[in-house]
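If your schedule permits, I should be very grateful for your opinion on a structural question. What I wish to show you is a protein chain and, alongside it, a tokenised description of its three-dimensional fold. Would you kindly read the sequence against the tokens and tell me how you understand this chain to fold? Here, with my thanks, is the record as I have it:

===
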Amino acid sequence: MGVPLPMDNSDYMSHASAVRIKTVVKVLPEYSRETEEILPFLDIWLNGQEQRFIRKVKKIFENAGVSKRYSIMSPEEVFSKTSFEERNDIYIREGIKLASKCLSNALEKANWKPEDLDYIITVSCTGIMIPSMDAYLINKLGLRQNIVRLPVTEMGCAAGVSGMIYAKNFLAANPGKRAAVVAYESPSATFQFDDYSMANVVSAAIFGDGVATVLLSSAPIDEGPEIVAEEMYHFFDAEQLMGFKLSNTGLKMILDVAVPDTIESHFPAIIHPFLAANNLKIEDIDHLIFHPGGKKIVQVVESLFGSLEKNIDDTKAVLSLYGNMSSATVLYVLERIMDNKPVKGDHGLMLSFGPGFSAQRILLKW
């Protein structure tokens, strides 16, 4: 009999520090409406505006690619002249409730205890709360007193992937640890009743509210797709494309019509070098886990990948079923992909865009 060879220490460390996604869970707010049910509320909001403009706004809602959306507020509340303070109070109250439920459900699904978490990242840009959401979750769920917490704000739709990147880097540097990323967004709380700009109209037409939790681990006993690589990409001199302006009435949407074209012009630089650095091409990617920023962005992505026989059906489904929920949306897409149980060896590419302007990418391997 031969003597067993000792394990290569570098191989052991590589395996030990591999970061995997344990589970993804979503929770939906209390209120929901089909798009056709929203149209009568537009008549209330647009009362006194020119009929041509009213028809245009309704057409934007009907053609937004969103069949249903959820909200922390009833439509009557959304389409009313409530103050910034009142809306933000609802954002805080409902957010604590929804995020607590979502994290609790995720821990239960993973069969983890609250005290198993070493790191918690909370993500949101659609309201203001200090202390941040993570502080409330620590108390509500009884997380450890020495847990490391990181609130991520001001990164918009890209922040769900950003939070996962931060969690991955922490876990890779700390083998045997576990982390949660909780993304909570309520774009309905940012709706501006007296603003008839296209940015406010389009925002109301495509956005919805939602929360999602991703649990990640660098403990060898935890299974799931591995985060093989991650990278951020920053568009120079593009700060004006997307964001919020803090006004006396709340967070006013900034949404430039040039966003889809700008993304399209950068797409080759965003995708191909990132994959090449990992010895892959787009043809090697089995699952496209893309953030559905809106119908036009979805159409841009489809036009770029359609010839390669790649589909973004889950991205389109999430946009239709829930709308764009800012940072949480791409996590809804990830949940759908993971629930379909990809086969061993499959690769997935996560991609989201946000203010800055920036693109965030994660490469997964099952």
Q: What stands out?
A: The domain at 226-365 is CATH 3.40.47.10 (Peroxisomal Thiolase; Chain A, domain 1).
